[in-house]
Structure formats: C-alpha cells, structure tokens
Structure prediction request, 200 residues.
Amino acid sequence: MPGNRKDLEREMAGQGRLPPGQVLTEKWPVLHEGTVPAFDPATWDLRLFGRVEAPVRLTYPEFMALPKGRLTSDIHCVTRWSKFDCEWEGVSAAEVVRRVSLGQGVTHVLVHGEQGYSANLPVGDLLDETVLFAYRMNGEDLTPEHGWPLRLLVPKLYLWKSVKWVRGVEFLDRDRPGFWERYGYHIYGDPWREQRYSDD
Prediction:
C-alpha cells in the first residue's frame, strides 16, 4: 500500500539507506538504449587492457573458474528509484584485477560493455570490497535485459555506473567520461550527493 511504502521510505531514510530524491521499488525496471546483445559462450571474453604490463583476455570458462563471492546491497537508479537488499553473486572486481600488473600512474578505469556502453570509475572505487562482476541476483541468473552474462555492480554509485554486458576494463592514467557521462550525466555519480547530471 502507498502509505506503507512511504513509512518504509521514511524509515530507510532515517537509517541512512535511502538517498535524497529516491523512492522505493520492489520491481527492477529495465532501462537501456538499443537492443539486447546476444551471448555466445564460445566467443565471449573479458579483456583487461590499457596501462598494464601485459593485457589479459579471459574466456568465459576462465572467468567462471575464478573464485566466487556473494554480497547484499541496495541499488539506486538515477531515474529516482531504489531497490533494497539485493543478493548478488559473482567475482569481486579486486579478484579480477589481480590477473594483471598495473602500470605506473593508473588512476581510473573505463569499463566497457557491449553496444558501446562504458562508464568511468576511479580505480580505488573499482577495487572496493563491495564491487562485483555479477551474474546472479536474488538466486537467479541475470536476465539478458539486466546484463547477462555479466554486469558490473558498484552499489555506492548510481546504477548507470554498473555497466551491463561487460566485455572489458581499460586502465587509465586520467579520468575519461563513459557513454552516459558524455551525454550529460555526472562524472562521478554519488547518489548521496544527488550527482545525477554534469551541473549537479
């Protein structure tokens, strides 16, 4: 009921879990531009490249053989909805990054997805213990619309930073805007500071 939802929103805001300007949802809305890419496990790979001593390419079996982890987090979309207590499964970003030796001066990454999607992050945020390359949520494989077979999860930032259909991580010595940042979204995207757009 709407009244109960408003009570819960007030409670979660009081606990510091609901960022300003957000409303709760039980659903998981689907938002993206373009079509949903097809997945072929025989050709899929994850590339780690840029300012590294040697680039690394992980095939789908190689990625799925990495140590797995689970975490529970809230997610916050720039379109003003929040979803609480999502249970994720995947491989920690730190575990993935251990596969490469970073070159000097790495400060940021650009995470690349299918269809030209990308998002920028400080490398320290990528290595946060809450960041996961996820393939399951709430006990079920991600649907193709939500990023199957792999999406990034960066729960402390707006959800557009959690790139769907991930295919690569590019290590950089400077910040570089990703897909949505080039279209006017905030360069960082902190929901607690309402960093939705470039002029926020």
Summary: The first strand starts at residue 23 and ends at 24. Residues 43-69+87-193 form a domain with the Sulfite Oxidase; Chain A, domain 2 fold (CATH 3.90.420.10). The chain is about 15% helix and 30% strand. The radius of gyration is 17 Å.
